[in-house]
Amino acid sequence: MKDDDKQDAEIPVPGDTAPHRRRPRYRGTHPRRFDQKYKEHDPGRYAATVEKVLASGRTPAGSHRPIMVAEVLEVLCPAAGETAVDATLGWGGHAEALLPRLLPGGRLVGLDCDPIELPRTEKRLRDLGFGPQVFSAHRSNFAGLPQVLAAEGLRFADCVVADLGVSSMQLDDPSRGFTMKALGPLDMRMNPRRGRPASQLIERTGVDALAALLADNADEPRAAELAAALAGHSFSTTTQLSAAVREALPRVTDDERELAVRRVFQALRIEVNDELGSLDVFLRQLPDCLRPGGRAAILTFHSGEDRRVKLAFRSGFRDGIYVRIADEVVRASPREQGANPRSRPAKLRWAVRA
Ligand SMILES: C[S@@+](CC[C@H](N)C(=O)[O-])C[C@H]1O[C@@H](n2cnc3c(N)ncnc32)[C@H](O)[C@@H]1O
């Protein structure tokens, strides 16, 4: 793995080293907690268990189901000898589908800012037979794509895919603090070596700024009410925050209350990781990273992301930077949405470089 964020390369993060641990004990017949699901964490040894989990529409612990793979391949049209970039490598699901189509002669450059999951994904793809000649992994924000291409001795890529947001590995692991469903530190950083955790953000953000953040990042209709209840408070765990959100909305239905918790988590995660700022930089630089005729596919998961991609592609088309762009968003098929609920909000947009 190449570390393109040299500044913080030496700061250890939880999960960087994996000391030997006893298999977790659990009550009852089935493990419930993320860390107890040792069979799901080891698909090589427990393939049948993983199949059962997939068949039930859930994502096995410690993995991620790539979304709209066929649709992404159709718009990217990867061919032998070409260079592809996966700007959000994650579990490597899209990369795994792209790589065989680039061979012989082609290669894939993968980026991800997560120092915990990236080495695992690099190992997984190496174990599948993709050596350093055909696949390289860079720990980098995708806002640094031009620098990563330069480090690889490349001027352009033939295709670029970005599948925004967090992976299931990040979301489901309570120790990363992304999930409202389990107790964990209120962190939410994709790169825990950088920036400040969500707990500090809430503590140090004023009421008006927090309200704006909840409205902008998650279209939260009760942003002002929630910001007044949360701003300046010190919550150290995910469950403390969820409880405070629920308490702040005594007069809404249970469903609305749970949606509000979900939206607060989403809004904070986006802010903690400066997701929209990185996306803006990436969209500005993307045309210069694509060779003429090169294709880009971007999967988004909420309106703030989709709006940015739509506007960038439309204005690029108007200015003659892109020759073709998606007229309409592409959605996951009903079959995929049924099999993988996480694909339901996904929107795919694509563009072809002039
Ligand atoms: C939805 S997952 C990608 C899953 C992947 N397509 C797959 O099939 O396994 C998104 C990934 O992008 C990474 N990510 C999000 N924002 C990023 C950024 N600005 N720069 C680099 N990586 C980013 C996250 O760490 C996460 O691993």
Structure commentary:
This protein has 354 residues and is of the alpha/beta class. The protein has helices spanning 47-55, 69-76, 93-102, 117-127, 145-151, 168-172, 198-204, 207-218, 223-230, 238-248, 254-272, 275-289, 303-318, 334-339; strands at 2-3, 83-86, 107-112, 135-139, 157-163, 290-300, 322-325, 347-353. Among the domains are: 69-168 and 275-337, Rossmann fold, CATH 3.40.50; 192-272, DNA polymerase, domain 1 (Orthogonal Bundle). The protein contains 14 helices and 8 strands. Helix 8 packs across helix 11 (254-272), helix 10 packs across helix 11 and helix 12 (275-289) packs parallel to helix 13 (303-318). The two termini are 32 Å apart. It binds S-adenosylmethionine. The site of S-adenosylmethionine (SAM) has 21 residues, from helix 3 and strand 3.
CATH fold name of the domain at 69-168 and 275-337: Rossmann fold
Kindly, what is the distance between the CA atoms of the first and last residues, rounded to a whole number of angstroms? 32 Å
- Identify the overall geometry: globular
Low-confidence stretches: 14-18
- Largest pleated sheet: 8 strands, mixed
Unique ligands: S-adenosylmethionine
Number of strands: 8
CATH superfamily of the domain at 69-168 and 275-337: Vaccinia Virus protein VP39
Give the SSE order as H and E letters: EHHEHEHEHEHHHHHHHEHEHE
CATH hierarchy: architecture of the domain at 69-168 and 275-337: 3-Layer(aba) Sandwich
* Strand order in the largest sheet: 1-4-3-2-5-6-8-7
